[in-house]
Amino acid sequence: MPCYTPKNVNAQRGEGVFDGSIAALQLLNSLGYGIDSELPLHLVYNPVGAFLPGPQDELEADYKRQLFSHFGIVFNNSIRSPICRLGDSRHFCGTIINLRNTWNCW
Is the dihedral of CA 95, 99, 101, 104 positive or negative? Predict the structure, then answer.
């Protein structure tokens, strides 16, 4: 999920994607995922564009607060996952790969 707001998700992923994602997460919670310690639920944050996401702990806290307060959704952890795209982002992707290899960031 690139964001926890419908406007941003639908703009980036297509109309209705946000509602479908929320429904899927609520279904997983109803089956015990993210609640039962044997059924972990982890979200992947993959924003659009050539930029680094914010600090992991701050992003995760925001997602947990927003998704729980608005939709009753709980999850265990989030994972930052900048996805490299072709075109103008090639230099950025090389930088990300170098950072990851140098600092073992993710």
Answer: negative
Residue 43: the pLDDT is: 86
The angle, 0 to 180 degrees and rounded to 10, between the axes of the packed helices 17-30 and 56-71 is 80
How many CA atoms lie less than 13 Å away from 76 in the CB half-sphere?
Answer: 12
4 has a pLDDT exceeding 50: yes
Residue 78's SS3 state is strand
Provide the whole-model pTM: 0.71
- The one-letter code for the residue type at 19 is D
DSSP H stretches of helix in 4-89: 6-13, 17-30, 56-71
**76 exposed, middle or buried (CB, 10 Å; 0-12, 13-18, 19+)?**
middle
Number of separate helices (H) and strands (E) present in the chain: 4, 2
What SS3 class is residue 77? strand
